[in-house]
Design a protein that fits this description.
The chain crosses the membrane at residues 119-141, 147-168. The protein has helices spanning 12-28, 65-74, 102-136, 139-172, and strands spanning 4-8, 31-37, 40-45, 51-57, 78-83, 86-92. It is of the alpha+beta class and 173 residues long.
Length: 173
């Protein structure tokens, strides 16, 4: 029997709580988060556990990691995996949530929005430039810029949607 499986993420900017509930449900079935994978999570088979998952967004310097993870350990949270600035933790059911007030939740969303905003800028600017080239040139340059525009658009649309989701969550909190 396969000891690992992959599940898709609905997108942390859109449905972080739903993803964490899905991971909890999988843990109760004996599938535990091992690491992030492209657009989802890799799970490994183990014993059934009723645990809750939470995510924190923080870019850490190498010398900050021990103190950061130690702070969560004191509060009852175990570090599961990290990808860039996203850190997933798990704890037993009933553990005090990582974000228990509106201010800390807003702070978390603000930290998430910073890299999302950067990616959005880096995808939208080329899309606009290629769109302008496509409309104001002709011949080979127009053909190449048209192709590049559509490729850039494929990356720009999800980036913009994700950034708008972070703005929505900031305003909602």
């Amino acid at each position: 029997m396969n000891q690992t499986k992959y599940i898709l993420s609905a997108g942390l900017a859109f449905s972080e709580a739903a993803d964490m509930k899905k991971l909890r449900h999988e843990s109760m079935q004996g599938w535990h988060l091992k690491r992030f994978r492209c657009a989802g999570y890799e799970l490994e088979k183990g014993d059934n556990e009723d645990v809750i998952y939470s995510i924190d967004y923080r870019l850490l310097e190498p010398d900050e990691k021990d103190e950061y993870f130690g702070m969560f350990a004191i509060a009852g949270w175990t570090h599961v995996c990290t990808e860039y600035n996203m850190h997933v933790f798990k704890a037993g059911k009933g553990t005090v949530p990582i974000y228990s007030d509106a201010e800390s939740a807003r702070d978390k969303i603000s930290r998430l929005a910073i890299p999302v905003r950067s990616v959005t800028i880096y995808t939208v600017v080329p899309t606009v430039l290629f769109g302008l080239l496509m409309n104001f040139t002709s011949g080979t340059i127009q053909t190449v810029s048209q192709f590049a525009f559509y490729i850039a658009l494929i990356f720009a649309v999800p980036s913009v949607m994700t950034y708008l989701a972070t703005i929505y969550h900031q305003l909602k909190k």
